[in-house]
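Escalated from tier 1: iron/sulfur cluster holo job.
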Amino acid sequence: MSKAVVWFMEARSRRFLESTAIKGRQILEHSGWLDHLHPGDIVAVKTHMGEAYNVGYLRPAIVRTFVDTLKERGCKPFVTDTTTMPYHPWISRTLSLDHLETANRNGFNQASMGCPIIIADGWLGTDDVIVDLKGRGNYLNKQFVARAIADADALFSLAHFKGHPAGGYGAAIKNIGVGCASKRGKMNLHGALAGDKPVIDTELCPGRKCEWWETCEACCPEGSIKVTEKGLEVDLDSCVYCFACANLCVNMAGRKAIQRFDHLPALGRRIADSALAAMMTKESGKVFCINYALDITPSCDCYGWTDTPLVNSIGVLASTDPVAVDKACIDLMNEAPGLFNSEAEEFNALAPGSKKLNLIKDKDIEAQVYGGVENGLGVAAYAIQEVPLDRSQEAIARLYPDKVRAKKLKPMYEKNHPLSNLDTASFGRPTEGVTHPKHPKK
Ligand code: SF4
Ligand code: SF4
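Tier 2 regenerated the structure:
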């Protein structure tokens, strides 16, 4: 069986040039993928800019480093994501208006990125193209791909590896499969167009005695929910299976009267189909995937909170194969010891070798990987290649174009030194052991 190459650099950082932002750039340069790009190529840098109040998403400084690299090659990058379904009542990314506000709040804007930020499926999530999977899909025949991403010359997936409540985990396949799908593409991959629905157990709903009943009705964009004194009524004909009510009922009301997180095997495979559709919009060699296995939390960056990590940060992994790079992240997470005071401890998943997220989610979380192998998105077999750190003068010069920035101070100090004309000795006593202090005179 052929193995995909997965490039890797560890998370530990001890000195200059060991920042994980720089390591990602060094992996990208080492991989040779940039040679597939031409000056003027439009590159969609697909990342997740975080839900409001989430603090686990990838730091803007990491994303900016890649934007700079692409611009240096003469490409035209844009940082991008898509509008979401209302996964919960307080979601702040369902319109491009809200998504851009949230991105700005989380540190992503034209000024911080050095390139445009584009919500790739437009105002309400209908600016998309329909891609025919030509019979390759596990579940999907056709999928809606966000137009700005579909029209770009290249796709650079920059994903945060972590757990996910419905998908089991999130990384490259999900960043491409869910993140490049338009809003109606997300409805499609969650099964709504095929007729899937949330599981309703009206017996568990206390009606208007539930303190959340008004939110429950209000969060449904289809007007499908009615809560009366007697209980819950859901019109499943109009429901488009968006999860808003389910996340409210499970996470806030704690009732599970509306829920469904048991469909992971099908959802994972649909996500892989959707990723295939997005990749089919690109010529061969025009997709690259970097996964940051840092802050490996049990839930995704779509929630308005961030739990403690399950394992220590692992590093930066990359491949042209989204299946292989995801599988490598899962395996390295499982090999690592779990962390105390995390869900790894709560679910007895501390031992190295324990399948962390399988134990936490009580299911096999690799459905995206299986689906991606079955539809030909990629391969699960991989060979890790450790990328040596480039600690050369040339590397420093590329990353610090001002060269020795401190040199600028010399002529300024000569004109106006910060300590000039001060009685420096009057500002305090020297450290113990300094017997003959020399107070600077300027
Ligand atoms: S009833 Fe259906 S459409 Fe309405 S919020 Fe719930 S899942 Fe979404
Ligand atoms: S949140 Fe759940 S328990 Fe509360 S009203 Fe809605 S369905 Fe009923």
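The chain has two domains: 4-192+263-386, 199-259.
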